[in-house]
Structure formats: C-alpha cells, structure tokens
Amino acid sequence: MSQLAPLSPLIAASEAPRLVARAAAVDAVGLEDRAASLAKRSIKKDSKLWALDLAIRCIDLTTLEGTDTVGKIVAMCAKAASPDPTDPSIPPVAAVCLYPQLVPVAVEQLRGTGVRVASVAGSFPAGLGPLEARLAEIRDVVAAGADEVDIVLNRSLLLGGRYAQAFEELVAARRAAGRAHLKTILEVGELGSYDRIRQASALAMAAGTDFIKTSTGKVGTGATLPAALCMMEAARDFHAETGRRVGVKVAGGVRKSKQAIQYLVLLRETLGPEWMTPDLFRIGASSLLNDVLMQIGKERTGRYQDPDYFTIA
Prior knowledge:
eight-stranded parallel β-barrel
C-alpha cells in the first residue's frame, strides 16, 4: 500500500474556484481518438498472461446489492483470497468492496490473506445526505476495520458552481477516513463533459484523495475508455505539478478481460509502469474475475474452461 495522503489539503478552500477554472480544457475529439487508438493495441501471449495476472491483482471484487447476505460475503471473500483453489499460481484480488453493515464479516474472513476490505460510505450512491451523517459513516466503517473507503463526490455542488464547498466536503471526508485510503467517485456519466471530469479530478486530488474513481455502477453510464483516459491525464499532470501519485479506479460495466487489458494499456501509455500496481490502479467489478480466469485458461491450454467450472461468488 502506498503512503497515506497528507491530512492537510494542497490548497485552501478559497482557491478551489481558481483551481477548477484553470483545469485544462479537454480536446474531446483528440481524447476519444487517442482512447480508441490505444484500445486497438494487440499484445503477445506472454505479455497478455502478465496483463491478466495484473488485472486480477487490481480487482476490487464488488457486491453492492440490497440482497447481499452474510453467506454471500463469506463466499465472496473466499473467492477473493483464492480465485481458483485448484491453481495456486492465481493471485488474490486487491480488495473486496461492500456495504458498511457487512464490513465486520469481511474483516473476519480476510484476516491474514492480504486482501483489503473496502466499504462504500458517505451516503452512497448519491452522496447527498447531511454532511455530518456522511462523515460519521466514514468514521464508522474505518473503526469497523475497513482499509479503504469509497465515497461519492457531491456533484450537486460541483455542477452548481459551489466549488469551495465541494472541496471542503472532500477535505472533511479525507480527514474522517484517517488511516484508511480514500477513493473519490466522480460519477463520470453524470458530469456531462470531459472538462467537468478534468475539473472534478483536480478538485478531488487537491483535497487529498488517494484514488479518483469513475463510477458507482448505479447509473446508466459507468467507466468508458475516454473518461478513464481523461482522469489518467489529470493524474499525470497532478503528479508532474506536485510530485504526488494518485491512483485511478475504473468501475461500472467492466466485465470482460479485453476491457481490463484496454484499461491497462491506457494506464501504461499515460502514467507509465509506476502506476501498474494495485496501489495505484483498481478495477471495480463483480463478474470480471471469472472471465479473466477463463481467458488465462485459454492462453495456457488453447481452449476455454466451461463457465460452470468457476464459482459465481
């Protein structure tokens, strides 16, 4: 795990409007063309196996359903720690991501495995509850043992031009998270433009977040290659300006190995090999893991395993 972000923001709240105003305008056509071009890159078999292995190590295995039960979390944690019990060469995933009430179950199940526990908090998925209630929920999940907290940017404030208040809320969330890593969900499908994605990224990074994340997975549009590229470019420029590395998490609709590899190509070409680690890149997904396992089997043997060979959890 990379070093925790400082609890002090990089700018004063009064500077937030200026930070948003000077966030670089995005050439939408150029961004989409570059994302499409990078997505077409082909990689050789050995590199593909390496990429698939990395994809597993970067997965936040996620369940955020109203029907989640203790039994489901127990099964998911077993899957996270040992994705294929018949193949010890398959690494564990980075983390499990779930609702706050189930954090103690995951903490108990994953103790000693190296798999982290991530919890959504702060009135997920809208992020519009009373601020003190949101901050209390963040503190509660950390006290319950969560290693990471996924919160949602207050888009109402950002889109309404109340940048200083949006920034102050993020700073307060960073402080509430304490020792835990904080991931800030931008909900790119609701921001309306790449310029807004760039501005939201800059605001969250300056406030001290450890990761910027594309989506909750609860709206129609989740992660897309151009949106992820826009965020990666923001993280690249932020690092060049401040010397601080901020991670990127893609989530919402990432279900196939091909998609995971496309995001890894974007990551390497934009942020370099230093970001090719679970400490700085994550994929939030529920069904991706089995597809990656099937693809690894195909690369090794020349044929796909039957999907029924792998557990669903």
